[in-house]
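Need tokens for this chain, all 243 residues.
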Amino acid sequence: MPGARSAFATTQWTQVLEARGESPEAKVALSDLCAAYYAPVFAFIRQNACDDDAARDLTQEFFARILARHGIDSVDPARGRFRSFLLGAVKHFLADMRDRTHRLKRGSGQPIESLDAGTDTSPGLQLADQNTPGPEREFDRKWALTVLDRALASLGNEHKAAGKMEHFEVLKPWLMGDTENLSQAEAARALELNEGAVKVAIHRLRRRFREFVKKEVGQTLKDPSQIPNELECLVAALSQVER
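Here are the structure tokens for all 243 residues:
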């Protein structure tokens, strides 16, 4: 596809790393990435918090710290993955919250409320063993699902702009594997096409979807050469069964 390589030359994460968060454009890019990948962080924190409300509060606090305290200043650009940065940062954040809880418990003889139970200003923590793989698997699975959701939304917007939203809605199940009760013959009738044309349309839609997935992944990497490996990680994460 013409221009495909240049599409990854400048990504959001590259922009953030190169500017080290100082330029307005880099700050907007980091904010956009954090908003886009809220779900994986929430999923990771949820396994360490006492309930959904506590997890939401902690997740908001985590992103507020990242955005307000230049949280990328110590990032190694050679690693290059926003996913790796985000997971490492949230682990550090939870460890910091755990240490804060322990300091408050030791205190100076003053009566305090335990953060384990949660308060109006300090959401409760029930920190799991960070060496267990479960939270990380869930983080990666949510990350992969977010990538697919964003790629699917971009593909939908493209079809909407082209006035082909009906085709997209009818054929979308073949992208997500939701065709158990559908047939290409039914899709052909709905779109007033023959089955051969529908097969070609599905093939093209899948190819375009893969392009959007690659583009989405590319926005979270420093080095475009990492895209194939990141796509392998994405497929592996999706193969994990949610517990």
